[in-house]
Amino acid sequence: MDAKRIVILGAGTAGTMMANHLRHQHALRDWEIVIIDEREVHYYQPGFLFLPFDIYQPEDIIKPIREFIPDGVHLVTGRVESIQPDQSHVQLSDGTPVRYDILIVATGARTAPEEVQGMLGPEWRRSIFDFYTYEGAMALRDKLRRWEGGRLVVHITEMPIKCPVAPLEFSFLADSYFHERGMRDKVDITFVTPLSGAFTKPRATDTLQHLLTDKNIMVEADFAIEHVDNEAKTIVDYGGRTVPFDLLVTIPTNKGADALEACGIGDELNFVPTNKGSLQSKDHPNIFVIGDATNIPASKAGSVAHFEAEILTDNIIRYVKGEPLLEEFDGHANCFVETGHGKALLIDFNYTHEPVEGTFPIPGVGPLRLLKESRMNHMGKLAFRWIYWHMLLKGTHIPFVSATMQEAGKDF
Predict the structure, then answer these.
(1) Where are the beta strands (DSSP E) in 100-208?
(2) Which pLDDT belongs to residue 188?
(3) pTM score, whole prediction
(4) For residues 191 and 222, is the Cβ–Cβ distance under 8 A?
(5) Please, are residues 251 and 167 in contact by the beta-carbon 8 Å criterion?
(6) Rg (CA), the chain
(7) What structural domains and CATH numbers belong to the chain?
């Protein structure tokens, strides 16, 4: 008789954390754990933000996937073609079927510039760039090194996106970068968003909008892009409003994995309908979803996947034992926001609480301050890379940081 098997799709942040969490569970000692990914290298995706500004180098953000897969977990390098939930197996592109008893979908999100007419036109990677991919961030780095100024437009196509604060961070870092190069007066920066303000949460929006104003970054809100005019170098919204650019840094539509569309378990953007508290698929009881692959109303950020992993591990054990699942995930997100000039904000929020002021991670002590610009928060952002490689991916609990949002030490 075949051993019971858990299959994890994706060896990115969420999938790797789940492999490490599950391998150490006594209740799963007789289970086989398989993780599947077509790539052989792991990218520290928050580092993409820093590549264009020469703050990080490629070697800072790339490591072999295999380095983080624990002993006892079988890594399969291959592309998932489709999922057959009714047969409880996935099909690889080479035709190999992989059976599962429990499936964990951790396939992340990808950029889809093809969704906007003209985005992949003749100006792509000439005057139109993204930084949500390694290739895009590196191409943009090379462009910025030789760019002599003009109209810089930082643009979000639509929500949801991975790391919702990253476009703002790029705008702030660009302001700092051009100041350091002595050419800020030669650059007009415009932040273009489909939202009615700078961020998805009103209280944080007030603080971030103030920073944009202070840094002389203009904002075009409620901009729903219809197409990119490569010849005129403008982006055009459905109402006919135009924003001209000399350099467009765009965050394209974010979508889930193509394999999810092929089997029909994803929504219109290929994200999987997921119970927002238990992280179980709404349609298939033996499928669980984590990280950017879900459609839950939480940020698509590494901290969210970290908090989800701790709760999902408990629910996997409960499922194996035939016990009721707990709906404990509260949408907790904890994000550093680079604001340039060696400073950063820290925001902490969940499904029901907006980002608030206070102390983190120790109530009343800190040492980090929430929703306040500081050099300490900037150091925390940079330190997170070490934490990511040495703790987060390996499923190590971060001291004083709980999976659910704590109210102590915060000003609600």
Answers:
(1) 102-105, 110-111, 128-129, 150-156, 187-192
(2) 98
(3) 0.96
(4) no
(5) yes
(6) 21
(7) 5-109+256-321 (3.50.50.60), 113-253 (3.50.50.60), 333-411 (no CATH)
